[in-house]
Amino acid sequence: MDNTIIKLENVSFSYESGDDPVKALDDVSISIKEGEFVAIVGKNGSGKSTLAKLLNALLLPSEGKVLVDGMDTSDPENTIAIRKACAMVFQNPDNQMVATIVEEDVAFGPENLGLAPHKIRTRVDESLKAVMMYEFKDQKPHQLSGGQKQRITIAGVIAMHPKCIVFDESTAMLDPAGRTDTLKIMHKLNDEGVTVIFITHYMEEITNADRIIVMGDGKVVKEGTPKEIFADSEGLKELRLGVPEVVALADLLREGGLDIPEGTLSEDELVEALCRLK
Ligand code: ADP
Predict the structure, then answer these.
(1) Residue 50 Cα, ligand 1 centroid: separation in angstroms?
(2) E strands along the chain, which residues?
(3) Domain limits of the chain?
(4) CA–CA distance from 47 to each of 31, 43, 213 (Å)?
(5) What's the pTM?
(6) Is the distance from CB of 48 to CB of 215 less than 8 angstroms?
(7) Relative to the CA of 215, which ligand 1 atom is closest?
(8) Which CATH architecture has domain 4-243?
């Protein structure tokens, strides 16, 4: 059985801006399978956010086709089902909260799905527990930290039971603790079968993704496992992208003559490699 959940076929997208349209995506083809954790990276302006919005039918392709769970985003009859199947979490939690009490905010999505009140109650409770925010259910969102607010936003999304969640720079405005919590939740959801698409600037956050897609000037310029992508630090530098600190350190030690294996991605792997040296 074909378990592709996201498919972009030769997709281009241009913004109409004055006399000159801006081509944000240029002949992009991507296929993502159900249950994958895919990171999308690229310098500013490379087309990542435009791509994210195409996955949710917030934008429609100028050319080519976007299929979400088999549904063509260009058909308006599919829009509601597409947004149910593939939800988005954006950068700024403040822009995504709609209610003045945490649990009401989380209930907003399931209410819009027209679920019965007892089902809404169950989903709100489950979702708040999944993001470790159940005890905050009666609080006002503005009293919470950025990381806590983002967890509430994610609870609101989980409560809709989407098959796929696109996180568009969702960790960018958070402090380190908020980032770590959000990442943990993303991986937990992925372990439970949710497809995760994570757009980020932080290379440290994607060393355990299943696959990394690198964007440059509206095109997919590289695709591979973290080991494959980070093996080419020079190529990433040319795209004005960095590598995780551990990878940079391993590269330096290797250049200095130490026998550190290519593809060392974590602190633990680096320590093991160093301990093996005589
Ligand atoms: P990224 O998320 O990688 O920073 P974007 O998808 O936001 O990239 O932008 C891709 C290109 O489209 C850039 O050249 C950007 O300036 C342009 N762009 C983005 N949004 C708009 C818009 N609303 N109107 C005109 N051009 C836009």
Answers:
(1) 7
(2) 4-15, 22-33, 37-41, 63-68, 71-72, 86-89, 164-168, 195-199, 211-216, 219-224
(3) 4-243
(4) 17, 9, 12
(5) 0.92
(6) yes
(7) 3
(8) 3-Layer(aba) Sandwich (3.40)
Nearest protein CA to atom 1 of ligand 1, as residue: 45
Low-confidence stretches of the chain (pLDDT < 70) are 1
Asked if residue 18 has its Cβ within 6 Å of ligand 1, the reply is no
Look up residue 202 and give its amino acid: Y
Residue 122: CB atoms within 10 Å:
14
In this predicted model, what pLDDT tens digit does every residue of 99-124 receive, in sequence order? Answer: 999 999 999 999 988 899 999 999 99
Atom 27 in ligand 1: residue holding the nearest Cα? 15
46 CB within 6 A, ligand 1: yes
Nearest residue (by CA) to ligand 1, atom 5, is: 47
Query: What span, in angstroms and rounded, lies between the C-alpha atoms of 82 and 275?
Result: 50
User: Is 166 within 8 Å of 199 (Cβ atoms)?
Assistant: yes
Query: How do residues 62-79 score in pLDDT, each as one tens digit?
Result: 999 999 999 999 999 999
> Residue for token digits 């995780």?
244
Distance 204 CA to ligand 1 centre (A): 24
Could you tell me the two tokens for 131?
A: 């993001």
> Is the CB of 45 inside a 6 Å radius of any atom of ligand 1?
yes
d(CA 92, CA 149): 9
Tell me the two tokens of residue 206.
């994607």
- Give bridge partners of residue 54 from the DSSP assignment: none
Ligand 1 within 6 A of CB of 15: yes
